[in-house]
Each structure stands twice: as structure tokens, then as C-alpha cells.
Amino acid sequence: MIQVKYFGMIAEATSKEEEKIDVGEKPFSEILSEISSKYQLGDLSYQVAVNKKLVSDFSKLQLEEGDEVAFLPPFSGG
Amino acid sequence: MIQVKYFGMIAEATSKEEEKIDVGEKPFSEILSEISSKYQLGDLSYQVAVNKKLVSDFSKLQLEEGDEVAFLPPFSGG
Amino acid sequence: MKKIFLEGAIPSEFIADSIAKHQSKHSIGAHNIFLGQVRADEVDGKKVSAIEFTAYEEMALEKAHEIREAAFEKFDLTCLHIYHSLGNVAVGGVCIFVFVSAPRRKQVYEATEWLVNQVKTEVPIFGKEIFENEESQWKVNS
Amino acid sequence: MKKIFLEGAIPSEFIADSIAKHQSKHSIGAHNIFLGQVRADEVDGKKVSAIEFTAYEEMALEKAHEIREAAFEKFDLTCLHIYHSLGNVAVGGVCIFVFVSAPRRKQVYEATEWLVNQVKTEVPIFGKEIFENEESQWKVNS
């Protein structure tokens, strides 16, 4: 199981702030596209962080039990 | 009569903050050198303001009754 | 990890306190402070009445920590503080407070500007502009 | 002519008050504040304990007025304030407070820096550093 967190306009689209997902052996990119289609995030702009670090190369990443994945729309603090 | 004001280290050298001086028809440059020699200001760095404006060209200036002349050492506010 | 979030607008007394606390540091000669204040912007005839801030708090604290370290590398500073609001900040309220102190003034302006820009672009904080008619839109940083 | 001088150190409450007063101006999005604080510099083994400020006050007010006008020409500002101490300011005390407000942040840092430099070079204020042993020397701006 991994922890998935949604923020800002992404949390509005998913109507939830977090959820646990069972990912088994699936590659990360597949998990991301499943979430994206489930909640129709296709038109939204976002970055993905794993364990609080932004990820740019999804292909190299294999999630582990307990990882925290966050969907982050453009930052707009200040 | 004109009003002469001294500030900062110039006021320390003159031991006074202001005085009235009778200048008659004397040119401005002559008044300045009289004051400078009287108080031995020769080694000190200063600018002169007439009626609150810094003066750069002394030759063109003729003082009038009631003018205010100020001896200003380098500014060091802030 | 230093705390950066405050609930609601940052009060002017909080800012005064931070200033007063630095008066015992006698190597400091210059402070520079940036405050971001919520503006009553108008969008299509609707007026902003507040911004609602949320954040990925744990990541934001880590990022703020990295930014602090980088700032101390980059500029000759004695200390620096970053604070940001969470939750609702009405127009006129201060939502970001960046405070830079150094022996001399030369670098404090640039350091403040750099820090504010880093917070805006690198820290996962999300602002939602609430209009007077209760509609809202997600804030976009320029 | 706006008043710029305060007797003694500028209290943090005074700064907080100035900030609070701007919270009703809803076109403002960014404030930048510069504070100069008296440093315990060491010169030939003697430590500065205070700076004693005097000024040619009438000329200083005229100059500050000119600087204000020039700043509003040069930068896109909503308001700006300049305050400077007269008399004795002990180490750790704030002796200059420059406060710039604008709709957006872009120019506030540069405007603050420019204003502080103008005050230091153009306004007839004279600082005398008082050492702990009661000797003194005239401050030189760098």
C-alpha cells in the first residue's frame, strides 16, 4: 500500500485529500496514469512528488510499501 | 547680517553651532575663507549650503541680508 | 526543521516581536523585510475578498530548510526567517513575511528578493482567491 | 513637509504601527522595509556603544521631500516612508527605517535600496560613534 495525497485544484478534482492505494508490482508510470484517468486529471497541470521530493524521471522509479506520493498543482504561495 | 550654522565635526572645531556675521559687500568666497582661517577648518572636509541648498560655484553667489549659510561635514546618516 | 506556517494573517505584532528579538544581536547592521499583502484584485468585475492557503506542509518545511541553507551559502547573512500563512487571509492581511539580517546592507535587498522568489516557486503552497460573491479561483503566481 | 526624525531609537512598536496602518490600503500587494541597526563595531580595540545623531533638520526635511518625489517618479510605488533617529541610539537600536509599498513586488527591493542610499548620501545627518570608554569618532559612511 502507498499513501497518495492530493492538493489544491487536484484535491478538488479528486474530491479527496488522500487515499491509500494497493500498487503491487505495477510500475510507477502505470499507477500515475490509472489515477489520472480515474479522476480525469488530464487537463490539469501538476507535478508529482515521492516522499516529498519532486520526481522528473518516472521510468526509473519503483515504489515501495509505505511510500508517499503527492499530486501538486502549480505552487502559488506568497 | 547672515546666519552661519556649523554641524558635526565642524561644530566641534568652531565650538559653536551658529553665529551671526556682518558681511557687508564682501564676496562670498572671501567670507568663507575668513571663517575657515578663523576656526582652522583647512584640514577638514565640508560642503557649504546657502539657504539649505548645496553650493558648488561660490564665485557667482552674492549673499543677502538674512541668508543662512551652513558648514556641513560629510553626511553619515543611516 | 524550523516552523514556517502561521494560521491566518501574520499580525504586525508578530513582525514587531521578530524585529525586537534581533536587537540583542550586535553584529547586525541591516535588516530587510518583505511582506506580501492580500490585494483586492478585480477579475471580470468580481473582487477578491480573501485568499485561502493550503500546503503540503511536511514537504514545504523541507523545502524551506533547503532554501535557508542555500541562502546562507549564497549571501553573507547573520540570520533569516520565512513565515507563511495557512488558511484564510482577508484583503489587507499579510500572508508572507521574509526577514533577512546581515552585518552590512549591501546584500540584504537581493537576498530578500531571492528568498521571496524561491518561496513562491519552490515551496508547495496553494492559494485560492475567494471573491466577494463567494466564487473562487486558484491563484496563479506571476 | 513630512516629518522624518524621531528622538532616539525607532521602537519596533512604531514599525508595527506603520505596517498595520497600511492594511486598509487594498491596492498594496508588497511591502519592503529596511532597518539600519547600530552595530557594536570594534575600532583599535575600542567597542562602539552608541551613535549620537545630529542633523541640519530643515535642510534634511527638504532633501527627504525631494528624494520622495524622485522615488515616485522612478518606481511604481503606492507609498513610502522614511524615518531617522536623532540623538543617542545604543547598539542594537534601529536608527533608520525605510518603508516602501507597491501593488506588486517587482520594484520594491530596488526602490528600498535606492532610498536608503539616497538618505545616506544626500541628507545632512551626522553620526558620531561613541565608544564604551567614552571616546568618540565621527562616523564615515561607506
Automatic annotation (TrEMBL), chains C, D:
UniProt keyword Transmembrane helix, yes or no: yes
Keyword Transport: no
Gene3D superfamilies: Molybdopterin biosynthesis MoaE subunit (3.90.1170.40)
UniProt keywords, alphabetically: Membrane, Molybdenum cofactor biosynthesis, Transmembrane, Transmembrane helix
BP GO annotations: Mo-molybdopterin cofactor biosynthetic process
Catalytic activity: 2 [molybdopterin-synthase sulfur-carrier protein]-C-terminal-Gly-aminoethanethioate + cyclic pyranopterin phosphate + H2O = molybdopterin + 2 [molybdopterin-synthase sulfur-carrier protein]-C-terminal Gly-Gly + 2 H(+)
Listed EC numbers: 2.8.1.12
UniProt signal peptide: none
GO molecular function terms attached to this record: molybdopterin synthase activity
Membrane-spanning parts: 82-100
Pathway terms, separated by semicolons: Cofactor biosynthesis; molybdopterin biosynthesis
Domain of life: Bacteria
SUPFAM superfamilies (UniProt xref): Molybdopterin synthase subunit MoaE (SSF54690)
InterPro entries linked to this entry: MoaE_sf, Mopterin_biosynth_MoaE
EC class of the enzyme, as a word: transferase
Recorded family membership: Belongs to the MoaE family.
Protein name: Molybdopterin synthase catalytic subunit
Top-level taxonomy: Bacteria, Pseudomonadati, Bacteroidota, Cytophagia, Cytophagales
